[in-house]
Amino acid sequence: MIREIVVYPDKRLKLISKAVESFDAQLHSLLDDMYDTMCAKNGVGLAAIQVGVDLRALIINIPLENEDGEHDQPKENTLEMINPVIIEQDGCEKFQEGCLSIPGVYEDIERAKHVKVEYFDRDGNKKTIEDDDFLAIAMQHEMDHLDGKVFIEKLSYTKRKKFEKEWKRKIKEGKI
Ligand code: CO
Questions:
Q1: Predicted local confidence at residue 72, as pLDDT
Q2: Total domains present in the chain
Q3: What does pTM read for this prediction?
Q4: What is the whole-number distance in angstroms between the Cα of residue 74 and the centre of ligand 1?
Q5: Which residues, in sequence order, are bridge partners of residue 110?
Q6: What pLDDT, on a 0 to 100 scale, did the predictor assign at position 111?
Q7: Would 48 be classed as within a structural domain?
Q8: Residues around the ion ligand 1 (C-beta < 5 A)
Q9: Residue 119: what pLDDT?
Q10: With contact defined as beta carbons under 8 Å apart, do 122 and 28 qualify?
């Protein structure tokens, strides 16, 4: 089921999400709905707070290109991370990021190049994953949401001011 996306500057995006304690049917339907919502909006990742649930859960699914050059995000490729924690990070890299809660905005953001993350899957099994490419960036972006942070907070003062001005104008014009 597609859920409604929480859009900036909704205060819920500032919440520190709570640790998941029950790996139950309710969590599973949340994760399933997050997948449906992410696909419907052509996103590559989504944190639970972006559908208004303040739990430390996120999903990432980096699209593959099929024979017709179309993007494909099969459900089985979805990385579901519950209570993730970065246990190692190094390097530095700039990537262009976007966010379903700030639609239409893309900015170069600096993050660690390599991260190693410990997390639980939907059934409560402990896992580890590491990456030094786009997945590393996506994990850091989505994990920031769990701590009430959005990517535009990493912009320089001038760029942030410009963003806020343009965003207010878009809201006024009913474009958001
Ligand atoms: Co985001």
A1: 87
A2: 1
A3: 0.96
A4: 20
A5: 94
A6: 98
A7: yes
A8: 99
A9: 99
A10: yes
* Catalytic status, residue 142: yes
**Rg (alpha carbons) of the chain, rounded to whole number:** 16
Domain, as residue range, for 161: 11-172
Asked whether residue 131 is assigned to any structural domain, the reply reads yes
CB atoms within 10 A of CB 153: 10
Determine the distance separating the centroid of ligand 1 and the alpha carbon of 50, expressed in angstroms: 8
Q: 161 CA distance to ligand 1 centroid (A)? A: 19
Hey, what amino acid is at 141? H
Q: Is the dihedral of CA 95, 152, 176, 33 positive or negative?
A: positive
Distance (Å) from CA 158 to ligand 1 centroid: 21
Summarised one tens digit per residue, pLDDT across range 64-90 is 888 887 778 999 999 999 999 999 999
CATH code (residue 152): 3.90.45.10
Q: What distance in Å separates the CA atoms of residue 77 and residue 62, rounded to the nearest whole number? A: 8
How far is Cα 137 from Cα 122, in angstroms, rounded to an integer?
A: 22
Span 86-116, pLDDT tens digits? 999 999 999 999 999 999 999 999 999 999 9
Considering 97, 142, 153, 164, which one is annotated as catalytic? 142
Q: Rounded to the nearest 10 degrees, how much is the dihedral formed by the CA atoms of 141, 146, 151, 155?
A: -120
Structure tokens at 30: 């949340």
Mean pLDDT, the chain, whole residue set: 96
Contact 113, 90 (CB under 8 A): yes
> Is 45 contained in some domain?
yes
Q: Is there a domain that residue 24 lies in?
A: yes
